[in-house]
Every structure is written in structure tokens, then in C-alpha cells.
Amino acid sequence: MSRNPKTIGLISDTHGLLRPQALRGLEGSDLIIHAGDVGDPRILEALKTLAPVFAVRGNVDTEPWALALPETEVIEADPATIYVLHDVHALDLDPAAAGFQIVVSGHSHKPARTEHAGVLFLNPGSAGPRRFDLPVTVARLDLSQNPWGVAFIDLMKASSK
Question: The whole model's pTM is what?
């Protein structure tokens, strides 16, 4: 990557639905990570109008277009190396030992930020159709802050603004 991204937009589990609020929430990102269950290739094209996009294949991404998406992705974003996969329960490596500072995943539809063994685990939640009573969210990761900043954006609250 030729640039040094500092603001990274995180989105997951769109399931074929890209809300205008999600696009607004990701504006200004230096790059965007889609953590799988894209559901429609037009979503990635729309995201690419905002910033370069890295996307992985989720369990609902079974159509022929989605086979081009990798199951995992590694992103060098100095000062962090980011490992991306759809379902964190499928993680088959020790991210700290492998040199990753951040792991981004989706699948659960639950926004989350946790730390284990010095590794930041992020799930932006689901930006697609609402599931149960879970929020509809995207996230922004700010690598220019120390410690790194993470902000979750509730798209349903953003729609009323």
C-alpha cells in the first residue's frame, strides 16, 4: 500500500444492504475493511468510491463473484499489521506470535472491542438488515491516536440526524 492509512473504516455483514448512513459513517476513511457477508458486489463498488477496500468472504458470500474474495486478508497499516477474517472463531493462528496487532472480524453481528495478549480484536457489528435486537453499526479505527481510537457508529441513530 503506497499510503500510510490512519483512519480505517470497518464494516461487516451487509448481507446485500448498504445503507446511506453507512456510507456517511465511513466518509473520510483512508481505507475500508469489509469483514465479510458482503452479499452483493455492488456494495464493494460503492465503498470503493470512498477509499480503497479490503474485503474477505463470509459464509453467505457463495455466489460466483464472491469466490474472488479471500477468506483472510493481511493489511500493513503502519504502525499496525491487521489480520482480517469473517468469523473470529475460525482464527487458526496466534495473532500475537504472528506479528499482528489488530484482528478484525464480523459474523456475530455484535459490535465489540476486546484485547487479548496485546492484540486488539475488533468487530464493527452488522451494517445490513437488523438482526434480533442488535444495533446496526459500522466502526472507525484511528491509528494516529495512542492508544488507538475506536468509535462505533449506530446507523439507526445516525439516520435521525
Answer: 0.95
